[in-house]
Amino acid sequence: MSNDEIRELIRLAEEMGVAELEVQRGENRVRIRKSFGAEGNIVLAAPQSAAPAAPAPPAPKAEAPAAKQPDSLHYVPSPIVGTYYESSSPGTPPFVKVGDHVRIGQVLCIIESMKLMNEIEADVAGVVESRLVPNGQPVEYGEKLFGIRPL
Asked: Per-residue pLDDT tens for 55-76?
């Protein structure tokens, strides 16, 4: 996929008011996601091809890790593609915060997929060391959501 084709996709996404667009052509895949930050810029996710394109800026972490122990953390992956939510509804407290103790089966977050709300539960008991996805962000299958230090 050429840079001109990618620019055209960005232009079309802006004109149509599309929040997120993903196009795959053979081995090439490009995702364009509208940023809902200060100015609503279009953000281009890094393509999975050899075609040169401007790399996307790294997504901000929702909360920084409380301790730098990447080898000892258990990461909770997203079991589905959808939108990450930290609480059951706007205005309610998050299910968990960094520093909270969690038990197996405790709800950590919700992922909305195809209008269904899927509760994501802890598969290990421990302390939440990091939350890796900002509230309201789209997530991919297998994307790390939380880092938990097992007890």
From this structure: 555 555 555 545 444 458 999 9
